[in-house]
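**User:** I keep going back and forth on a fold encoding question. It is easy to fool oneself when nobody else works the same problem. Could you pick a protein and write out its sequence and tokenised fold? Could you put it straight underneath, so I can go through it closely?

**Assistant:**
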Amino acid sequence: MRFPFVALLLGLPALALVNSVIHAVALKRFLAEVPRLTSSSDLERFKRLVAGQMYGALVQIVLLGAPLVVFLVGIVTKVLRPGDILLVVGPSLVILVAGLLVKPIEAQARTLDTDDPVLEGQRNAIVDTWLHRPFPDW
């Protein structure tokens, strides 16, 4: 009976790591292809990228929150022991390090240069949504 709990405690963070890598690669690819926003088509690509990042963040919240719930259920049902908290903390630290490695890439995307003040204003509105709302509103 312990195996499903341990599998979830390790599998969910593994999926979170995959999710993080997928979205980091998408950011890096976009930045390599679009080093600056010069047209409305670049801005549309940026919107699609940001929307994907936002949905990925929501998935990440579920993937990272679920192990704590699994752990608590395991403790209450006496399938897991208090020391098994390391199965939550250890993978969480790995995800934290991965997130810290991606932060500079996200910052670069959020501050993409533009030649046009109109595009800059639109970029800023997209970034504001990215930072302060759960879903894209464009």
